Amino acid sequence: MTALRDAAMNSKAWPFEEARRVLKRYEKKPPEKGYVLFETGYGPSGLPHIGTFGEVARTTMIRRAFQMISDIPTRLFCFSDDMDGMRKVPENVPQQEMLRNHLQEPLTSVPDPFGEFDSFGGHNNAMLRRFLDTFGFEYEFISATEFYKSGQFDETLLRAAEKYDAIMEVMLASLREERQQSYSCFLPISPKTGKVLYVPIKHVNAKAGTITFDDEDGQELTLPVTGGNVKLQWKPDFGARWAALDVDFEMYGKDHSTNTPIYDRICEILGGKKPEHFTYELFLDEHGQKISKSKGNGLSIDEWLTYAASESLSYFMYQKPKTAKRMHFDVIPKAVDEYHQQLRAYPTQTPDQQFANPVWHIHGGEVPASDMVVPFQMLLNLASVAGAKDKTGLWGFIRRYAPDASPEANPAMDQAAEFALRYFNDFVAPGRVFRAPSEIERRALEDLAGRLAAWDQPADAEALQTMVFAIGREHGFEPMKDWFQALYQVLLGADQGPRFGGFIALYGVAETRALIERALAGELVSAADH
Fold it and tell me: Which Pfam families match (predicted)?
């Protein structure tokens, strides 16, 4: 164990680098609270999106790395800011008119447009928890509404009243002049309308723990800052939460990065120690726009899980968190295949290499074996030419390629066959464009068909790849990628494809020859036109 811990302490994998920063906080003495606290925040103003999952997945990876290098207990809080006022109606939910009647009310006071939970905030919290539970995350859920109303936040709120001027000095320095006139770190909740009010505070009584303000109808009211009568503006809330819970680590998107000094300073003003933070790049949709809960653009977690297993999504989240990621359906096949490549590499790696392998972080060191005998991208190409209507049709080819494989012995392969058919029908088939070969391509394809007709060896992927490559060279293709692109465009209706030798071995030598002959006869172009 000591050798493994030493390897972990020296690993350059980013979760270990972050874990070491957290551990450094306690190099002199352990935490008084008895554990190290990791936190993630969620704004339930709309349905949870894939970025929310990514935040919890990545924080979990750092937590696992921490557990590898330290014996200090850990906890992970998933904190939902469900007391925020609903500023606008999300575009991707029903009952838009009803929701418009509840603007500015706390999300846990807005009725659930789906009619399933006691509030819209409650619905979105349940969706978040269901998603997180799907992935087996170990976490503790905290609702801001419950946190404010139960009194758990009271001590920090009273301290905020005492330190009101210091907090306001930090906040006002970051605001435009016109915003400064009406800004307060405290937002009262109107006892008459139930709305979160963005109004100037006329007086803060630190000794009594109250604020005085004018309600929407102009009547002057005084409310205690405790018991859920007020909430903090989101920037002060961030820092106050860190102080109240004694948070050790929180990550957030790049759009928060300019606010980090504000969060840190408010945490310190309220008597806390600023946590370690990690800023990740944003997730973008296919148009390069930031993914938004209210717009519902970009991939959802459910959509990813329609076409691939959950581990492939975790793999995608591990990769380069400091680089912006385009989240569209076309990233799924690559993520699936790379995840299984890493699984296959893991058993032969040294401990150093294993700690740098994404699958260690995805599975917390309990890494399963891959049973994917055919890559996902190859399954898509097989679906393109096999005309299979269900995964049973694909298994006929898979078994011939890997005789020992079966749905029972290879459950991930079996699941992937079903995913691949679904993905092919929804995304590949509608975009296929077959073309006729040029003269040089036709001669090379005729040569390939002839050599396949005479092929009398086992259908070995490498031997077939060597033969396909030799044909391209002999027919003068330069660069060689032009030959392979011709194969994909003419035979598969796509610009990209698999190693072609492997495709022949999977689909079959005779079947590939027949496919080439159909293409040369113009049947593939004709069928696509109809």
Answer: tRNA-synt_1f
In this prediction, what percent of the chain has a pLDDT beyond 90?
A: 81
Number of domains in the chain: 3
Give the residue from 71, 78, 68 showing the smallest Cα distance to 360: 68
Choose one of 283, 308, 325: the last residue of a domain: 283
User: What are the contacts of 460-463 at 24+ separation with CB within 8 A?
Assistant: 460/505, 461/499, 461/501, 461/502, 461/504, 461/505, 462/501, 463/501
- Token pair 């016109």 is at which residue? 178
What are the tens digits of pLDDT across the range 81-108?
A: 999 999 999 888 999 999 999 999 999 9
Domain with residue 464: its CATH number is 1.10.10.350
pTM here? Answer: 0.90
Quote the radius of gyration of the chain (alpha carbons, Å).
29
Tell whether 315 is covered by a domain: no
- The string of pLDDT tens digits covering residues 282-299 is 777 666 666 655 455 567
Residue 300, CA distances (Å) to 141, 248, 335, 438 in order: 21, 29, 16, 42
- Residue 460 neighbours by CB distance under 10 Å: 13
Residue 482: which domain range? Answer: 439-529
Report whether pLDDT(530) > 60.
Answer: no
Angle between helices 164-172 and 154-162 (to 10 degrees): 80
